[in-house]
Specification:
Zinc Finger, Delta Prime, domain 3; about 325 residues; 5 strands; Rossmann fold; Helicase, Ruva Protein, domain 3; five-stranded parallel β-sheet; alpha/beta
Length: about 325
């Protein structure tokens, strides 16, 4: 299921024997893993097992045996590769036998875990949740909620600035909030500029604008990928950017002067909004359709084909993008 469906189940306080979180957003996978684990038991009842330490028999025994020191046994299994169905079914069944045990699979990746997600069903009282990269308004709400938990007083524009500074990386934003909380003062954009530092040598926002303005992005693209940015994450961010531009364009053509709050649900920095508006209005509706079809075809290639080198495939496809749409 998707995150919004699972959010409804969380609000209803529905519990499962086993959970699986996977998808394109590592931050949301970590966030919901921690959220669910803390809802199931106390800190001393939660144990994390990383892939290198994973041993099927040991994990199964832990789930079947009641602890001498805690009333609940909650295991978080962090994975980078999928497990086979026989093992997953056996571990879920162990939680059915021992009602005081729960297991959470925290899976870093997307298409690698699609098949494994099918092992989690209502029949065995388990659930798999696929996480996508959040849209900007959702990401900013998560940052705002975390700031409130840390008792940080801030301007909404300051949190927007932090998000754009870190090129939409929620993990870095949340880490910086921990640092800003220590200051114990009202947080502004100037304070963020003083105490926080954006990542990478390439401005990701500028990269997106250059791509849609059909400028040469070869060197910046290479630097972004060399810095460790995931290919599918990068592609998803480009698609989200184009979708935002399309919403701005559609609003301007049907209603009038674009309203950031109505279109995006939040107000981005003024200079960025003005750049987006100018760019969006200059792109024809049919061009938007063709661009989105091209990007979605690329995503389908990533997730359904055996591409030997995703890095080179993405670079070649985005260079071709410029040739097709300029």
């Amino acid at each position: 299921m998707y995150k919004n469906e699972f959010d409804n189940l969380l609000r209803q306080n529905q519990k499962f024997n086993a959970y699986m979180f996977y998808g394109a957003s590592n931050f949301l996978i970590e966030h919901y893993t921690s959220l669910v684990a803390s809802s199931l038991g106390n800190t001393d009842e939660i144990e994390k097992i990383y892939f290198d330490d994973y041993d099927f028999k040991q994990v199964k025994n832990k789930l079947l045996q009641s602890s001498l020191f805690t009333s609940e046994t909650i295991l978080i299994i962090k994975l980078e590769k999928k497990l086979n169905k026989k093992e997953v079914d056996s571990l879920i069944n162990a939680c059915e036998i021992n009602k005081h045990s729960k297991i959470i699979f925290s899976c870093m990746g997307d298409f690698e875990f699609k098949v494994m997600g099918g092992y989690f069903t209502k029949k065995n009282n388990s659930v798999s949740i696929r996480m996508f990269q959040p849209f900007a308004n959702e990401a900013l709400s998560l940052i705002d909620n975390q700031a409130k938990k840390l008792n940080i007083l801030s301007d909404r524009s300051a949190l927007n600035h932090l998000y754009f500074m870190h090129k939409f990386d929620l993990s870095l934003c949340i880490n910086d909030l921990e640092k800003l909380a220590i200051l114990d003062q009202h947080i502004t954009s100037d304070i963020i500029n003083t105490h926080c530092f954006g990542i990478g040598s390439v401005n990701f926002e500028d990269f997106l604008f250059d791509l849609l303005n059909m400028k040469d992005i070869s060197s910046d693209l290479k630097l972004l990928l060399e810095s460790g940015m995931n290919e599918i994450y990068l592609l998803n961010q480009i698609t989200s950017f184009v979708q935002e531009l399309f919403m701005i364009s559609s609003y301007a053509r049907s209603i009038g002067n674009p309203n950031a709050k109505e279109i995006l649900g939040f107000i981005p920095p003024k200079h960025i909004w003005e750049k987006k508006t100018r760019l969006a209005i200059n792109i024809k509706p049919n061009t938007f359709l063709n661009i989105l079809q091209y990007l979605l075809s690329m995503e389908l290639e990533f997730k359904s084909s055996a591409i030997s080198n995703q890095n080179l495939f993405l670079q070649a496809s985005l260079r071709k993008f410029k040739v097709i749409f300029r």
